[in-house]
Specification:
By secondary structure, the chain is mostly beta strands. The protein is elongated and about 95 Å long.
Length: about 525
């Protein structure tokens, strides 16, 4: 089964052009190595800015997790094993992680699932039926929890083979992708999107049943059969699919026999294959490793010792060095972004490099996370209702090139801290959490937040907030708890009466009295439980 090292060495590539970008797009964040580590790389990142990867400590790879929103140091998720195949390879937005590990007294690889709380699940040992002498790798996980990878199965009475495989959510059972057109031909699944489409490579017969000719071809799979991806010029060309986007765009590398058999970074858009250029001409070792829903592709132009991390923006075959897109900052000697390995729909990019932290002059390879200059909204403020003179709370969660500064607005106008003309009091107008005490009709409107980072600004979607007047008990619904409060006001009748609660909240039609007309409105709200 191919490990990351063999995958990287299989990627080799090509031709020129660099797009101009005047403004910085990212801030480079060096993820600290785990204590005692001599090497590290970030391999996958979700849309919430949570990255996972591995560090090498004493000859054994350890998995780590790093949350850009809250962590300053990575979390050690434990040892995985000494081989290039051992690592954490995928994370979804819910925080489930997959990888490959070695277990005690077993020389074969095991597929690993890690729950958000950190519990490890050996889905090879605990939930799948496999040959006693076979390995398994978990390589990617989608938002529904379906897992893509490789698992060994008996494909005949005398032979076992590693097949690209799909695990069900939770890893409770595994299905091999047996659609190859040649018996016992090995395959690998490296990626899966939320539609459940897998991508990988398989040894396929491009000859005849009588005179087979096996070639490693990239494929996608939406059930149990492998659909070969297009080639540049000949079905004899080999290739590998390494990532698939939410829109089912695929990237990896592919050979072009019409170009002296060179291998190039490749993008597959449906039935079309697109050759992605390298910087300054053909460069051996170039590869496309990750693609997101915007068809932004990340990878490496050149080989591991001298190449650099690049991005191919949507619709553009010319690579842009990621170094050219960084916020200006002091750099240590030997600064280099070696390879970008994944990009999320939120725009986060992870990989490996050297000298990313200005103080790091060790020359060691370290993981990096590129934060977009425009902060990424992880959780926007939510539309809500408040009772009259209630205290609604607003919150937002964002990740980006920090530190992040917040400014809440109502109907596009910045909110000041403290007392408002309506009599309400605002607390936290310049923080992630805001509360308005004594909320009234004059305070209702469309709320949003302007979030500014160190090199960019973004604005959240608006959250409409209004007064739910029949919610007299301020519990968020119109229920039995509101009825006695209404009856007390109904018995007082006149809003001008000194004993009437302030603002006469039960006067729903605002005619100065709490009477039968208000009772009709109260019943209407009571019957639907919530305010219209």
């Amino acid at each position: 089964m191919p490990g990351l090292g063999s995958i990287l060495s299989a990627c080799t590539v090509l031709v020129a052009g660099v797009a101009a970008h005047a403004d910085p797009v990212y801030k480079a964040l060096a993820i600290p190595l785990l204590p005692g580590a001599t090497f590290g790389e970030a391999v996958s990142v979700n849309n919430k800015g949570v990255a996972i990867g591995r560090c090498l400590i004493g000859g054994v790879y350890h998995g780590f997790m790093f949350d850009a929103a809250s962590d300053t140091t990575p979390i050690d998720l434990g040892p995985l094993g000494p081989s290039e195949t051992h690592g954490l390879w995928g994370i979804n937005d819910e925080g489930w992680i997959v990888g490959t590990m070695q277990v005690e007294n077993d020389p074969f690889d095991h597929a690993l699932l890690i729950a958000p709380g950190g519990a490890r699940i050996d889905i090879t040992r605990d939930t799948t039926v496999r040959t006693p002498m076979g390995s398994a790798q978990a390589r990617a996980i989608n938002s529904l929890g379906s897992i893509a990878g490789i698992s060994t199965f008996d494909c005949s009475l005398s032979e076992s083979t590693g097949f690209g495989s799909r695990w069900s959510p939770g890893g409770f059972f595994v299905t091999p992708l047996l659609g190859s057109n040649f018996e016992c031909a090995p395959s690998s699944a490296f990626a899966i999107n939320d539609a459940g489409i897998l991508a990988g490579s398989a040894l396929m017969n491009v000859g005849s049943p009588v005179d087979p000719l096996l070639v490693e071809r990239p494929f996608i799979c939406d059930d149990d059969s492998q659909i070969p991806l297009p080639t540049f010029s000949s079905p004899l060309e080999s290739g590998i699919a390494l990532a698939i986007s939410s829109q089912s765009d695929v990237c990896g590398s592919a050979q072009d026999l019409s170009d002296s058999g060179r291998t190039h970074p490749a993008l597959w858009l449906g039935t079309e294959i697109i050759k992605l250029n390298s910087i300054g001409g053909f460069l051996e070792g170039s590869c496309a490793f990750g693609v997101n829903g915007n068809t932004d592709i990340v990878g490496r132009s050149g080989d591991e010792p001298t190449g650099q991390a690049v991005i191919w923006y949507s619709g553009d075959v010319a690579p842009v060095p990621l170094t050219d897109l960084l916020q200006p900052a002091p750099r240590a000697p030997g600064f280099r972004l070696t390879a970008a390995l994944a990009v999320s729909d939120g725009g986060f990019i992870v990989g490996r490099g050297t000298g990313i932290s200005p103080a790091d002059e060790s020359g060691q390879t370290v993981p990096f996370l590129l934060l977009p200059c425009e902060p990424v909204i992880i959780q926007p403020p939510l539309a809500q209702t408040s009772c009259l003179r209630g205290s609604p709370a607003f919150s937002v969660r964002a990740v980006g090139a920090g530190p992040l500064n917040y400014q809440w607005r109502r109907n596009g106008i910045p909110l000041d801290e403290g007392p408002q003309p309506s009599g309400a009091v605002v607390a936290g107008s310049r923080s992630r959490l805001m509360r308005i005490f004594g909320f009234s009709f004059d305070d209702a409107g469309n709320f949003d937040v302007v979030i500014t980072g160190s090199c960019g600004t973004t604005i959240t979607p608006v959250a409409n907030t209004h007064v739910c007047r029949p919610d007299l008990s301020c519990d968020g619904i119109v229920s039995d708890s509101d009825f006695p409060i209404f009856v007390d006001a109904y018995n007082i009748l006149d809003c001008a009466d000194p004993v009437m609660p302030p603002s006469c909240p039960a006067d729903f039609n605002e005619d100065g009295f709490v009477d039968d007309a208000d009772f009709v409105l109260f019943v209407q709200a009571y019957e639907v439980l919530f305010c219209p």
